[in-house]
Amino acid sequence: MISFSRPPIAWLEDIPSFVDGDKNIDRATVEAFGDEWTRFDSFSDGEIDFVAAEYFDILPAEKLKHFKNAIDVGCGSGRWTRFIAKHVDFVDAVDPSEACLVARRNTADLENVRVSQASVNALPFADRTFDLAICLGVLHHVPNTQEALTSLCKKISFGGTLLLYLYYDLSNRSMPYRLLHRASEIPRKIVARLPHNLKNLSCDLLAMFVYVPLIGLAKLTNALSKNLGQRMPLHYYTNKSWNIIRNDSRDRFGTPLEQRFSQIEIENMLHTAGMSNVHFSSNAPFWHCTAVKS
Ligand SMILES: C[S@@+](CC[C@H](N)C(=O)[O-])C[C@H]1O[C@@H](n2cnc3c(N)ncnc32)[C@H](O)[C@@H]1O
């Protein structure tokens, strides 16, 4: 197990905490995630494997098994920590929110996982420690994504790999799709500011009365034409469980800060952070990519 580069400043139950005044953190967003992952706190291994096939299409098990020390930054419930722990030697999972308690519970049966409370700009590890870093759906929720990415990439050893997922800017989508998305920003900005209970109820209602009908329409269109079906809003969810749909509705509408990036922007940010060999998956979720520390 790797030693921390500085001592914890506190303990959250048995979890070492290193969260101390990081400026590149949106406190309302982190608090919202603490609540979200406490609600969506369990995933079956089958459910994890099913969705992991999409994120890890460009980093399959044959490649994962070669890594020794991995870090999962912004681990949330710990679902991807659990997934990669099957393949790599050891995983450090970090999250600044109370989700780390959930991640700890969800990985309690795994001896090769350690969970800590920490944020991306203040990771308590020496530079060039990890030969694999994963950061899925996290850095679009911090105020300065480039700064966060640079800080994370410093912790990767030369030749090490990063698997990154950042929300896409929809530039590969049609105008009606983009307009629909822009319209969804209005409820998002309102719902994200509601108190937790009201926010959770609103997100469930959105899942039921917006997601489900749109997914139904995507399924119907898919049956008529696969090509057209794939271009329908929320097509991504046509094969997802109700649990995932509810969780993602809460993720999308309940989070105060989200940013979106084009492929070129992501590639440029990665180069600035000292990474090369950027490889984007051509499949959803957009955009997820791998890069190598040079
Ligand atoms: C959408 S969730 C993704 C969780 C997990 N990676 C997954 O895909 O299941 C985003 C996570 O990023 C964490 N997060 C937010 N700001 C962060 C920061 N500055 N440093 C590290 N993690 C952060 C949140 O607490 C939350 O758990």
List how many beta strands DSSP finds. 9
What name is given to the CATH topology of the largest domain?
Answer: Rossmann fold
Number of helices: 11
Number of domains: 2
The backbone outline, from C-alpha atoms, is globular
Detail the poorly predicted runs. none
Structure description:
This protein has 294 residues and is α/β, with parallel strands linked by helices. The protein folds into two domains: 10-168 and 260-293, Rossmann fold (3-Layer(aba) Sandwich), CATH 3.40.50; 175-253, no CATH class. It is 43% helix and 17% strand. It contains eleven helices and nine strands. It has helices at residues 27-39, 45-55, 61-64, 79-85, 99-106, 145-154, 175-191, 196-224, 226-229, 242-253, 263-272, and strands spanning 10-12, 15-17, 69-73, 90-94, 113-116, 130-136, 156-165, 275-280, 288-293. The strands form two sheets. Strands 5-4-3-6-7-9-8 form a seven-stranded mixed sheet, sandwiched between helices. A two-stranded antiparallel sheet has the order 1-2. α1 (27-39) packs parallel to α5 (99-106) and α8 (196-224) crosses α10. 40% of the residues are buried. The mean pLDDT is 95. It binds S-adenosylmethionine.
Topology summary:
Elements (H helix, E strand, L loop, with lengths): L9 E3 L2 E3 L9 H13 L5 H11 L5 H4 L4 E5 L5 H7 L4 E5 L4 H8 L6 E4 L13 E7 L8 H10 L1 E10 L9 H17 L4 H29 L1 H4 L12 H12 L9 H10 L2 E6 L7 E6 L1
Parallel strand pairs: 3-4, 3-6, 4-5, 6-7
Antiparallel strand pairs: 1-2, 7-9, 8-9
Helix pairs in contact: 1-5, 2-4, 8-10
Bound molecules: S-adenosylmethionine.
S-adenosylmethionine (SAM) binds next to helix 1 and helix 4.
